[in-house]
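Hmm, what's this shape?
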Amino acid sequence: MPGRDVKIVVVGDSCSGKTSLITTIVSHSFQERVPSVVPPVTIFGANKVGSTVIVDTSSKPDDQNDVDNEIDTADVICLVYDIRNDDNETLTNWMKRITNISQVPVILVGSKCDLEFISNKESITDLVDVYNQIEYVFECSARYKKNIETLFLYAQGSVLYPMHTVWDRQGNCFSEEAINVFTRLYQLHKKSNSDILSNEEFLDFLKINYNLTESIKTIKRNIRRECVRGVVNEGITLRGFITFHEMMMNQNTSDCLESLWKVFRRYGYNDQLFLCESYYTSTVSEYIELDNAAEDFLLRRFDLYDSNNSGYLDDQEMENYFQIYPYGKNPFTSYGYPYCCSYIEEVGISKIAYIHLWKMFLHMDPASMLKCLSYIGFQNDTGLTIRSAYKIIDGRSPEKRSVFNGIVIGSNECGKSTFCRKLFAENSSDTCNSLYYVGNTPTNKIVILQEENYLRDNIDNFEEGLYNRCDFVFLLYDQSNRYSFEFISDIYEHIKVARDIPCVVVKTKNDLPEIEQTMSPKTFTKSNRLPIIPANEVDVIEKLVNLAINKKRWPIKRIIGTTLLFGCAYAFYYMDGMDHLGDFYKDLMDDY
């Protein structure tokens, strides 16, 4: 990361030699007498960094709060100890203190190695094994300038190319975060739905990222020597891909770290091996939807993971798909996947349902969706920025939208999940419930139904903000439960206060005897000009969804008086007739 400033904080006990190390690197000579603490020293333009500030610290008890503050703001810490007194307990106390404050790299520095001492490498090794933050151990002499420049070069390097986030020294292997990165890189460079990275794809990766031109036979032979299952005739397995990088680390750790970090940053990673926010964040407050570039990319990803070319992604293929995402988590599970969409047991989801899920994800949580899109390789595959993944829709022209959000409300066990499943998740069993459902209308509008549950004694905690971002509401009541309608009438009063939202009353459980409600549905819906329909009229419901969407073309003040009048027309059609509403509304009802 050229141009980055680095702050090196030097800590240690009194008389450990930390100040002499600093004065020697600055003056290029050893000074017999040095002050107890020297002011911060700035070195400009060294080792591909903007500037390096070396901060000395005091050993006085009264200054320890200041020392902690310096540790907290350091990019790297040099823990200096007198090599003649390498007391393990003292160093352990220092490491406990450092790790409680900061997680930055630490370099152990044994000073005064020009003097006679009895080496205690065992205790140092034990310490290194316990604390993964310790990246390097040096023995230095300020008097003879031994390893002084190397020490500070490595200190700078540990900031630019940190080891502790990449390599688990205790296990002598890559860290879990690094494995996740390699898994993502491996998946991104596959161009077919094979489980193997082909020879050509692997060579392409090596050429792009490491400028390697060795023959594939030589590379595969070296990998096979370390990991028999790492190679196959057709190419390289994921295990072989990781083994190749382990071999690089074992050959030359510091050079390999620099090469690895250049690759990691090329693919958008920060020092903690997560994608940088700037890589996937796009500040936009307008309403957005998936653009063609992102949809085309997602369809290509579908084909890539559809290993049997069935036109569906089954559970295993979806698991493979999101291997590339941090910790392999499928983000759709937050929305009740697989029961939130049209899903067939042991077959999976179709391309249409798959695109529905992504559009729902973007609609419900744009930031997380764009992040996920980056993780699965949108920028790397298309060469575009994350801004190219979406289009901004004019909020004053809802007819241009393709995704709409409806909320389904009703008392407990009134049939909300059954209602939603009947619309968009018809293949799910009655025991497979979700709070979200997504599908499309006959006019190919994407509709997200969000089930909301409110207890009767908790209506006042109604989430008014939720209704400020929805397009319509279904109010369900159980005709066999005499208190059910009263519940939704209370909710409707809250909705009217929050915002004028198109609402449709749905009568459920029509197969059961109808019981007189504590509040008359007919009287309430008529007075509030609300449509009321039976839940088993699926075609009617779908058309109502589409018409509720189209209502948004008129200003809010006219929704109830004009478009929603269609809903009233339907309600009054069964109750009082609709001659008084005119031929226009009669035509709307012809299909019903």
